[in-house]
Request: fold
Amino acid sequence: MTDPSAPAEEAAGALAAFAAAVDQGVAALRHGLSAFVDALGFAPDEPTVWLVFVAAMITAVATGFGALPLLWSKAGTARWLAIGNAVAAGLMLAACYSLITEGFAFSPLRTLAGLLLGVVGIVAANKLLHSHGEVSIGDVRGADARKILLIVGIMTAHSAAEGVGVGVAYGGGRELGDFITIAIALHNVPEGLAISLIMVPRGATVLRAALWSVFSSLPQPLLAVPAFLFVLTFEPWLPVGLGIAAGAMLWMVFSELLPEASEMTKSETVGVIVTVAFTLMLGVTLMLQ
Reply:
């Protein structure tokens, strides 16, 4: 007679093996990052300004890799646009959860204030874009260009908070800084995918999407250095920045991405895609923590 608990035990074993593989992968990446920065002549123990800048630049460049899956996709159809919106929405919702959780660890009140500021800011930016008539990014014009500008702007605000996070982490020592760098770099890849899923189905090339993804993360190296030098000054504002990014993302998901996706395909399909994307992104994020 088959043991009814066997499937559950097999699933638990597979999950444990996957988690162990992720841990080993992160450890290998940490070793690789340490070897790379050591080869550049940085001190093995004490972080320096140049080390912080290079580490934050690595996290920015990693965002561009999120566009690579779009090289093998068929863009342009309404169904693909809906799927892209749903996947991007799931990834952004998981990012919001991570941002809010991290912000609450510093200051719940400041994180909540940031959430409200983020909503106010993104609504104001949306109205400003509407008031300027037709906008364009390359060959993309009108409402599609407006959505692209909004998503890039939101991710840029998000990257600013992550840049401060890298600098503050290195203020706590080389080991912590290296770990946070790897975690953010891996986290940035699906964020680049979210940007690309908005851009490519609307007519942008994969290369342009990758470049805009990297551009959205440039605040990371620009803010990581001053945050490292002035940890005590920047740290109190970190939860506000995290909240702003989360608030803007939440507005984008529920005001733009999900309504448009539901117009182009079944709401049940959108719900499944959003849930799966959210679960995968959140699972990877929790394992990295």
